[in-house]
Amino acid sequence: MESNYDIRTLIFRTFMVVAYVCFGSGIFYLLERDEPLREAAKFEEYYNKTMSSILGRSITNSTEMQIIMAEIRRTFLQESYPIEWDFLGGVNITVHAITTIGYGNTVPKTVAGRMFLIIYATIGIPLMAMMLTTLGDKVKHAIRSSLISFERNILKRSRPQNIQRKSLIAVFVITAIFLCSVSAISAKVENWEFSLALYVWFVTFTTIGFGDYVPQGSGKIDPLYTPLELAYALIAFFLGLVLIATILHTLSDWINSKRPPTTDDLKRSLGRMTGSLSTHKEEPSTNIAET
User: Fold this and answer.
1) Where along the chain do its domains lie?
2) How far apart are CA 37 and CA 242, in angstroms?
3) What is the CA radius of gyration of the chain?
4) Can you spell out the DSSP letters for 127-162?
């Protein structure tokens, strides 16, 4: 019964997070879709003024040419041409918000979008945390059960020892393999060095999210994703966060197994023993009454 309850809880929390992401993506799309047009108009005005200023000068020496090139560079770097928002852009920003990754490559530009983000993240972050907690606990128990089965069935040990420590080592190894695998794929797809890809995904999985590099599946600067790129990023984000949650669960269990029992632990153990003795004492009288 408890197992069925846990599964229903996991399914419900996962459904809530997916539905919440879709809801937020649609709202962000409605709030932000017109802002790129306004930014484009500002960009064109700024660009035309800069070019008019440049073309109106007479270039006399290399120093002046360097000044002109610096102005052009500043124009394109500081006033980058805005891109169009779509629903996938909304998914991008909602996932980055509720997972607290916060790269900063896609952000709300309107006042309404920023105010909505405050409310949205306040609800979404706890929802995501609950789902990751449930999944991390499930993965922890799966790893623990697999280790016990391996020792009993393969190594023929009737009483497996140090399961908490072995579970912790196993989840660290699994996470390291996954991190290296995703980094190797990104190094190939994004044209990055492996060390850079490893750094980017570590920053992502730990939700540090500096934003200096963003995995997107194409090595481009464009902060919006194609459907394939979005699927690639979301699957990697999700699995990485689940593994981090599993590490925290397993580490907590291992630390608790090492600490000496507290007074509360002894009271609970004594209570269970007392309850067990009471049950055994009542059984004969119950049988006699029934007879």
Assistant:
1) 1-56, 90-275
2) 38
3) 28
4) HHHHHHHHHHHHHHHHHHHHHHHIIIIIS--SS---
